[in-house]
Structure to design on (91 residues):
């Protein structure tokens, strides 16, 4: 027959182990949640990088078109200047 002390120690030990196992389960759940958060952050980072690359491509084509427009405006300005100078010379 077990003594009172032995029964007390056995109950205390089982409570501790059940607390430890529930703590371990909570730790594992936290680890899984952290890994899931990390994966979600990685997916978001990849999506952001892809969006920026797309924007960079769009920006590049916009810059090329703006350069063409500026070149056209400068050429037209030169032609207008020549016509104004030619008109003032005739007078």
């Amino acid at each position: 027959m077990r003594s009172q002390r032995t029964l007390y120690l056995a109950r205390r030990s089982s409570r501790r182990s059940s607390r430890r196992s529930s703590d371990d389960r909570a730790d594992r759940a936290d680890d899984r949640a952290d890994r899931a958060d990390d994966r979600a952050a990685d997916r978001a980072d990849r999506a952001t990088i892809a969006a920026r690359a797309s924007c960079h491509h769009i920006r590049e084509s916009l810059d090329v078109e703006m350069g063409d427009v500026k070149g056209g405006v400068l050429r037209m300005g030169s032609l207008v200047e020549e016509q104004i100078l030619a008109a003032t010379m005739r007078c």
